[in-house]
Design goal:
Elements (H helix, E strand, L loop, with lengths): L22 E4 L6 E2 L1 H13 L8 H6 L5 H11 L6 H17 L6 E2 L3 H10 L3 E5 L4 H10 L8 E3 L11 H8 L7 E5 L2 H10 L2 E5 L15 E3 L5 H9 L1
Parallel strand pairs: 1-4, 1-6, 4-5, 6-7, 7-8
Antiparallel strand pairs: 2-3
Helix pairs in contact: 1-3, 1-4, 3-4, 7-8
């Protein structure tokens, strides 16, 4: 777990650090990083071992937030391939190996991510990653993209007792259980539902991967640009 050190507010309390004490938890895929190009690429590689053509990019992209198994099963369903559970287990293991070996080939941070993370830290916020992606894949991806320096902790979906939409995943990422001091930023149903379960404010990034109509996700705030997170939080907490 990575820690950061911040000087306390002394003579001018909180004016220069209006977000001091706020924990901002970010989803990874579809929120911080556009990982769909690599995840869809690997899905196509895996189903090619069963003789299938590459997947439809748009359809596969919508399933990214639900994990590799869902991407594989959706791709097989689309071509009427009734693979057994054991066969899907094998395909998923192949997927994870291929992806781990090439997870940053096509993936890039979304526009404004790094600039915004720097600003949030400068304003006093503590940042973490709350992702259903396994931690052993999430951390190397953040490191390769040089984003890991901004987060005090990264909690993957394989690490808490229950992953999103369970509220405990958010609390583990935030490092505490005070909902008034936590913001969840994500792009899909698991993120928004976890925020509702934890009773924390949720920001939905509308450029993400959700296959559901965004109005159904019941986000507290909806934003189309990552850089708009800073003024939104300053308005809410200043």
């Amino acid at each position: 777990m990575k820690k950061t050190n911040r000087a306390p507010c002394i003579s001018q309390p909180c004016r220069r650090l209006p977000l001091l004490g706020l924990s901002v938890c970010f989803d990874l895929d579809g929120t911080l990083v556009d990982t769909a190009p690599d995840l869809v690429r690997v899905t196509s590689e895996v189903i090619a071992t069963r003789g299938h053509n590459p997947v439809n990019y748009r359809s596969a992209r919508a399933a990214v937030g639900y994990g590799s198994r869902r991407m594989i099963t959706d791709a097989l369903t689309a071509v009427d391939d009734a693979a057994s559970d054991a066969e899907i287990d094998t395909l998923q293991a192949d997927f994870l190996k291929r992806y781990a070996d090439s997870l940053d080939t096509l993936s890039t941070p979304f526009l404004g991510v790094e600039e915004t993370l720097k600003q949030l830290i400068a304003l006093g916020a503590e940042l973490s990653v709350c992702t259903n992606k396994p931690g052993w894949l999430a951390r190397p991806l953040l490191e390769k993209l040089q984003l890991d320096r901004y987060f005090v902790r990264t909690i993957g979906g394989d690490e808490p007792p229950q992953k999103k939409p369970a509220p405990g995943h958010i609390f583990a990422a935030a490092g505490h259980r005070d909902p008034s001091r936590i913001i969840m930023v994500g792009d899909s149903w698991p993120d928004m539902r976890a925020a509702q379960n934890a009773r924390v404010h949720a920001i939905l990034m509308t450029y993400g991967y959700t296959p559901l109509p965004q109005i159904r996700l019941r986000a507290g705030t909806r934003l189309s640009r990552f850089r708009d997170i800073v003024p939104t939080l300053l308005t809410r907490y200043s």
